[in-house]
Amino acid sequence: MTVDPKTYPRVGTQSFPETLPLADREVVLTFDDGPNPPTTSKILAALAKECVRATFFMIGQSAAAHPQLVKRMAAEGHTIAHHTFAHADLKKVSHDKAIDQIDRGIAADEMALNGKATTVPSTPFFRFPYFESTPALLDMLQSRRIAVFGADFWASDWNPMTPAQQLDLITGRVKAAGKGIILFHDTKGQTAAMLPDFLRYLRDNRYKVVHIVPPTAQSRPVSR
C-alpha cells in the first residue's frame, strides 16, 4: 500500500481520528526501537520465512551502531522509518530540542541506509516515542510532508510476559479489531520468540499482511 503523507498525514486510531484504509483482515506490522542484532535478526528471519514485509521505526543511535543490519532490512524489502535519535519523550523537551532529536534520528538512519546524512528522509514515515507529540511538532512534520504513525493496537511487549502470553494477547486483539496497524518492538526477546507463531496464526486465519511504502517506492502489498 502506498501511503502519501499529503493524503494521510497522521494515522493510527490510538492517537488520531484517522487510520489507513485497510480492508477487513488486513494488518500492517510495525516494529519500534531497533535495530538490535540479537532480536532484530530473529524477527527478520521469521518475516522472511512467511514472505511478509514490515516497517521498522528506527532509533538513530542504534541505526548508526548497526548500519549493516539496516542495509539488510532494506535489502530484504522492509520499510525503514524514523523514531528520533535517542527515544526522547518529545513532549518533555523544548521545541528546538525535539526538532533536533527528529532530525538527528533521520540523518543517522539515512547515513546507515544510504551513506549520506540528510534530514530529508527516503521514507517520510515517523513515529513519536511514547506517542507523545505536540501540535507544533505535528504541524512541522506535516509541513515537511512526513507522515506520523500512531497505531491501531499493540502487543504491549514493553511488559514482561512469556512468548505464549504475548501470543494470546496479540491474537485476541487482532480478533477484536479485525484489521489495523500493529505495534511491536524488535528489541524484545519475547517478541522475537513469539513472532513465528503469530505469523502462522495470521496465515492460517486468512489475514493479509500489507506492506506500506512511500509514494516514490514501488507499491507491492505482500501476503500469505
TrEMBL record:
InterPro entries, alphabetized: Glyco_hydro/deAcase_b/a-brl, NODB_dom, Polysacc_deacetylase_ArnD
Domain NodB homology: 25-210
Keywords on record: Hydrolase, Metal-binding
UniProt cross-references to Gene3D superfamilies, sorted A to Z: Glycoside hydrolase/deacetylase
Superkingdom of source: Bacteria
Stated role: Is involved in generating a small heat-stable compound (Nod), an acylated oligomer of N-acetylglucosamine, that stimulates mitosis in various plant protoplasts.
Family according to the record: Belongs to the polysaccharide deacetylase family.
Protein name per UniProt: Chitooligosaccharide deacetylase
Lineage: Bacteria, Pseudomonadati, Pseudomonadota, Alphaproteobacteria, Hyphomicrobiales
